[in-house]
Give the backbone structure.
Amino acid sequence: MPLTPTGYATGKPPHETVDAVVIGGGAAGLNGALMLARSRRSVVVIDGGTPRNAPAEGVHGLLGLDGVSPAELLRTGREEVSRYGGRIVAGEVTSAVPAAPSAGNDPRFTVTLAGGGILHARRLLVATGLRDQLPDVAGLARHWGRGVVHCPYCHGWEVRDEPIGILATGPASVHHALLFRQLTDDLVYFTHGTGLDEDTRARFAARGVRVVDTPVAEVESTGNGVTGVRLADGRLVPRRVIAVATVLRARTEGITGLGLPMEDMPQGMGRHFATGLAGSTSVPGVWVAGNATDLFAQVGAAAAAGALAGARINADLVAADTDAALAAARRGSTAA
């Protein structure tokens, strides 16, 4: 199937039942699809085209590809999956539900796309990723992924030695602050209505972290980026970077019909799909990989999880194929 310049397959989803449908075309989904396609499995990746890291200038901490743009990484990944016969379809999943199995222990699923396209699959890999829930502070969201960052390992080197402000969202922000203190000597911690005990204040003071208890009104900026944090009393605290520990929530749109169990993170940090070994779930035939189940996984870890899930899906299909072959052989033997 020919590719567009962005690496998406053209044409409509296949009518035949495929071995696997991958819901989500990020690092986890593409690497899972790559493993399946290289195992000569028919696989379709449904990609909504809204990766979490799209605003970032580059992917960091990924050995051999440090600094590659998110768009380039995904373009290359789509090409690699397609090279082995995998299909990449641009679209949104509106429904994914179990269907009646054809025979034995071999599940079937029906996946419906926005616009009415329908796919039938033996197995599903959910790699929908997550959404970052930012605090409701004026001026914050427009700088997400640039002047407003979340991960010291993803963005830390790029903002080193800048005046950084930590916008607290809860207990996790204390650890967040100490990680960013490794990267700059000029760090201000805005409590933003969260509690901060005396021991933590003493630890911050020992590291030279300034604490501001006055409520935050907005983040100010110019065309060149963030310039400071405006407090409720009118004061401006000059900052070039705002670091915030977002609430992390797995994307569930279109797949609630699968009935996948979910788990809450402690201290309100987020919610993710509950999985077992290699991304297996309590729903037979469904695996989950990447940020949808591991909220803190960077790109490399998400890709590795997708590869492992893809391998386990292939192994599960091999077992089902062998069971079907054996049953057919026995029926033939009986008929003879």
Q: What stands out?
A: The chain has two domains: 17-131+247-335, 135-244. Residues 17-131+247-335 form a domain with the FAD/NAD(P)-binding domain fold (CATH 3.50.50.60). The CA atoms of residues 75 and 141 lie 26 Å apart. The longest strand covers residues 118-126.
